[in-house]
Each structure stands twice: as C-alpha cells, then as structure tokens.
Amino acid sequence: MNVALLCQQGVMASALTGIIDVLHVTNQVLQKTYYHWQIVSLEGQEITSSQGLTFKTDCQLRDLENFDVLIIIGSQYQGDKQLWQECQLFAKYKKSLREKLQAKSHTTLVAGCCGVAYAAALGLLENQPFTASWWLEAFFNRYYPHLKLDTKPIYFCHQQLYTAGAAHSYMYVVLALIRDQIGRHVADKVANWLAIPEPQLRQTAFLMSGALEQHKDSTLHKVQQHIKVNLKTQLSLKQLAKIACLSERTLIRRFKSAIGMTPFEYIRLLRLEKAKEKLIYSNLRFDDIAASVGYQNAQALAKQFKRHFGTSVQEVSAQSIA
Q1: Which residues contact residue 111 at a Cβ distance below 8 angstroms, ignoring those fewer than 6 apart?
Q2: What is the arithmetic mean of pLDDT over 293-321?
Q3: Is the pLDDT of residue 102 over 90?
Q4: Do 109 and 101 touch, CB atoms closer than 8 A?
Q5: Where would I find the H helices in 110-236?
Q6: Rounded mean pLDDT of 177-203?
Q7: 321 confidence band (pLDDT: 50, 70, 90)
Q8: The dihedral of CA 192, 197, 201, 202: what is its sign?
C-alpha cells in the first residue's frame, strides 16, 4: 500500500513523523512491509517544519505517480489570512492532482487539521461530509460555505475520505484507515503498542472561548465582553443586538462568520467553561456554581456539562479532589 504524505513549508513535525510512526508500527505488527510511504512537497527538495526541523522530500507533487493513499498534512495554523494564502498555493495544483486521481480507479484521501483546508482548495471535499479542527469553522464559513463541514466529530470517515480535527487527531484517523484496510485486530494492537487512548467522541470538549476572540470585528468584541461581564444574568438576543447596534439576524450572521457559532452557543460555551473552572478550583456547591454562571437549574447545567465535556460533574469533581 503506497502512501503519499503531502505537505508544505511550516508543516507540523509531530503530525508528519507521528503518521510515519503509526504506519511503521503497523508494519511491525504485521511482520511485513504493508505500508510504503514517501514525503511529497508542492515544490522543492526539502521541507522545514514550523519547529525548524528539516525533512528531505522524496518527490514533488507534479512527479507523484504511484500512490494508493494521499494524506494531506497541515502546517501550523497562523491565522485565517495566512491559511487562505496557503490554500491559494495548493489551489494551483488542483487541475494536475485531479488528473492524477482520475487516472486511478481507487484512491483513499486523508486530511487533518489545516490539511483539511488544503483538501478544500484542491477540490477534494465537494459534496462529501467531513470534519476539521473546531477553530476552523469560521474559516470554512467564510471561504468555503458550500461545503458539508461538521466540526463536532474528532474524526470522520465517509467512503474513501478520512478527515480529522487538530494535529494529533491524526492518530485516530490513521487507526481508522488501518482498521478499514487491514482489520480491527491490527488497529487495536497498534493502538496498544503506541498507548493511543480511546478518542473523545466530540471536539466540543476541546473548545476554548479565548480562541474565539482572535477575529477583528470590534463590534463583536464589544458584545463578547458584555457577555463575559454579565454571564450570571439572563442575556437576550434583543439586548445583545441593541448593544451591537445591529438587527438580531445580522448579529447572528456576524457571530457565525467571525467565530463559527451563534451568540447563544457562545454564551453556553462560556458558562460551561466557567462552571468547570469553578468546579475544579473552588469549594462552591454545584448549585451555587450553576447560579453563578447563569443557570437557574443545576440539573440542566449538569446535563449540558456531560454532553459538552464527555464527562460528568461528579467525575471532574472527584479528579480535582484527587
């Protein structure tokens, strides 16, 4: 099985070497060379990672011929503007890659982190459901709004397309590839050798509200600040729209464009974050924590907490005591 690892300057070194490690251990488990891999660049004979490590490439994309699996590895995220520039660089190879894929009867595509955005630029995600890093939702809403993105799963497999969230999610998506191509028994052995834990079912556990303030919409910054200061009060869309001097519909649209979620999804995230923080670092009763973050019903908060973080209030509380 020939695997092409497509990457460019600024690649996440751990993602590139980590995928190679998983493939190598798979060969060891099988006691034969099932996977062959080569590092492929858009151009040039060397790639320098975001950490400053240099990797020699085996070929450039224009010279790539024999491959069964194409894995697109992302560079370190440096903001939406930089990512869009990188996508435009990949888009130049859209036609030539399409010709290579059309010449092959069966090719599996894998992409993770910013590599999913590169796959979009290459036209590989059309009419297919996929996932990506949770913090890329606003990017896709802005630049590829027609695509079928769902950032909830940590990884997602659809026919011959495998996609994953942030950089280290590659472990799970490559294990899924091994499971489908060879068998679950082999994938389980590889996971045991590498001590890869069971994945979170959803990316929501990794959401960080601070990362949703990196946009440049000053009006939304004002609203976000108001929400944070008044988290324990009952906040209405009408009130927030008035603060922003926008219509309610426009405010929702601006939120979706800038941070990839609605105002009330953002409020819920802040409340859940604050509740978890207080659960770990304070001695408050859970009923008091709920009231302090704007929940009148502690049971409702407990249910949302479990759904969001994938663990219960009791489990988090017990871990903080331990």
Answers
A1: 71, 72, 74, 118, 119, 124, 130, 162, 163, 164
A2: 88
A3: no
A4: no
A5: 114-121, 137-143, 170-181, 184-193, 218-229
A6: 91
A7: low
A8: negative
Torsion angle of alpha carbons 152, 153, 158, 160, nearest 10°? 120
User: What DSSP state is assigned to residue 199?
Assistant: P
Question: Mean pLDDT of all residues in the chain?
Answer: 92
Q: Are 79 and 69 a contacting pair, CB within 8 Å?
A: no
| CA 107/CA 116 separation, integer angstroms | 17
CA-nearest of 315, 40, 21 to 171 is 21
Dihedral, 209, 212, 214, 218 alpha carbons, nearest 10: -110
Backbone angles phi, psi at 46, to 5 degrees: -140, 150
Q: Which helix (H) or strand (E) holds 148?
A: strand 148-149
Q: Is the pLDDT of residue 320 over 80?
A: no
CB of 123 closer than 8 Å to CB of 101: no
Q: pTM for the complete prediction?
A: 0.86
Whether the pLDDT of residue 216 is over 80: the answer is yes
> Residues 48-77: pLDDT tens digits?
999 899 999 999 999 998 899 999 999 999
Domains of the chain (ranges; CATH) run 2-205 (3.40.50.880), 207-321 (1.10.10.60)
Q: pLDDT-derived band of residue 214, with 50, 70 and 90 as boundaries?
A: confident
Alpha-carbon gap, residue 302 to 123, rounded angstroms: 42
CB 267 within 8 A of CB 255: no
- Tell me how far apart the alpha carbons of residues 184 and 175 are, in angstroms, rounded to a whole number: 9
Structure token pair of residue 22: 């998983």
Can you list the alpha helix ranges (DSSP code H) found in the chain?
Answer: 13-30, 80-91, 94-102, 114-121, 137-143, 170-181, 184-193, 218-229, 237-244, 248-259, 263-281, 286-292, 298-309, 313-321
